[in-house]
Amino acid sequence: MTSRTTKSVEAADFALFRERLSSFPVGPVDHVDRPDFRVRSSDRLIGIELSRIFVQGEQSTLLPQAAENISRQICYEACVAGEHLGLPPLQVAVSFRNLVPLNRARRQILAKEIAQSVSCGLPDSGERRTLRRAQPGGEALPEFVNSIFISNQPGRVRNHWHEPSSGWVQVRAIGLLQEAISSKSPKINGYLESVDECWLVLVADDLRASGMIQPDPATLSHEYESPFARTHFLNTMKTEPDLLRTKARA
Predict the structure, then answer these.
(1) Tell me: the pLDDT tens digits for 91-145?
(2) What is the rounded CA–CA span in Å between residue 64 and residue 62?
(3) CB 181, CB 49: distance < 8 Å
(4) What residues form DSSP beta bridges with 49?
(5) How far is CA 179 from the centre of its chain?
(6) What are phi and psi of 18, to 5 degrees?
(7) In the prediction, which pLDDT does 239 show?
(8) Contact criterion met (CB below 8 Å) for 50 and 14
(9) Phi, psi of 100 (to 5 degrees)
(10) Which candidate, 202, 161, 197, 195, places its Cα nearest to that of 181?
(11) Which residue has the higher pLDDT, 99 or 75?
(12) Are 199 and 231 within 8 A, CB to CB?
C-alpha cells in the first residue's frame, strides 16, 4: 500500500476502535507515527499502535491476502481486454479456484481468456447469465476460473469486473495473534520515548476474505506475551473490541 493509503486505513481502523471501545480515553488525538496515534488524556499521553492481521493458510496454498491482490489485478486486466474486444459496459463477477502465484505475462493471458469467455457467453441486453465449470456439459472456462457471472443491463455506463469476496473463517488464532504481537514488541522502547504508555490494536477486516478471523473462546482467554500496556483484538464486524490477557515476557 502507498503511504497515503496506509494512513487512510489507519485512520478508519482507529475511528472504529475509538467508536466501539466504551472505555476509550477522552482527549485530543494526533495521527502521527511510532506509534500511529497519540491520545492526550487528562493525566497521560497514550500511544496507540495499529496492526492489521490476516488469515493464515497452509504452506501449499496462496494466502487470501495475496489471492485477493492477484484476482483483483486479473479482473482489472480482463476488463481492459473486454473493452478492446468491443464489449458493452457490463457487471462481471469472476469466481476463481485453486489460484496460484502468477507472473505478469501469465496474468495477462488469463485475463484475455476471461474476456474471451465473457464475449462468447454474453447475454442479450437486459439479461444475466452465469457460466459455470462445475455443471455437466458446462462451458470450457479458463484455468483457475470456477464461474463467471455476467449482467448486461441497458443504461449501464461503466464496467464493473470483480471477484466476489469469499473465504474461510479462522477461529483458532493463538499463534497468529502472538506472532502479530511479537512482531511489534521490539518497537515498544521507541514508542515509549514519546508517550507514557502504549496500546496495541490488532485489526481483522472481516469484510475481506483475508481478514475473516473470529477467535474462539480458547484464543480469547489465552495469556499472551506482550510489552504493551493493553493489547486489543478488533474484528471490524464485532461491536466491542476484545481486551487480550497478557503478561510481560520473562
Answers:
(1) 999 988 767 778 889 999 999 999 999 999 999 999 999 898 755 455 689 988 8
(2) 6
(3) no
(4) 200
(5) 18
(6) -65, -40
(7) 80
(8) yes
(9) -125, 165
(10) 202
(11) 75
(12) yes
For residue 148, which of 117, 124, 126, 120 has the smallest C-alpha distance? 117
C-alpha cell at position 57: 493458510
Considering the entire predicted model, what is its pTM?
0.62
How would DSSP label each residue in 46-113? EEEEEEE------TTS--HHHHHHHHHHHHHHHHHHHHHTTPPS-EEEEEE-S-----HHHHHHHHHH
Residue where the block lists cell 470456477 = 146
Q: What does the block give as the cell for 38?
A: 497519540
Location of C-alpha cell 464486524:
237
C-alpha cell at 192: 515509549
**d(C-alpha 150, C-alpha 140), whole Å:** 16
The pair phi, psi for residue 232, each rounded to 5°, is -110, 150
For 48-60, the pLDDT digits (tens) are 999 999 887 544 3
- Which amino acid is residue 109, in one-letter code? I
The string of DSSP letters for the chain reads --HHHHHHHHHHHHHHHHHH-TTPPPS-EEE-SSSSEEEE-SS-EEEEEEEE------TTS--HHHHHHHHHHHHHHHHHHHHHTTPPS-EEEEEE-S-----HHHHHHHHHHHHHHHHHTPPPTTEEEEEESSSTT---PPTTEEEEEEEE-TT--S-EEE-------B---HHHHHHHHHHHGGGHHHHTTT-SEEEEEEEE-TTSGGG-B---HHHHHSEEE--SSEEEEEETTSSSPEEPEEE---
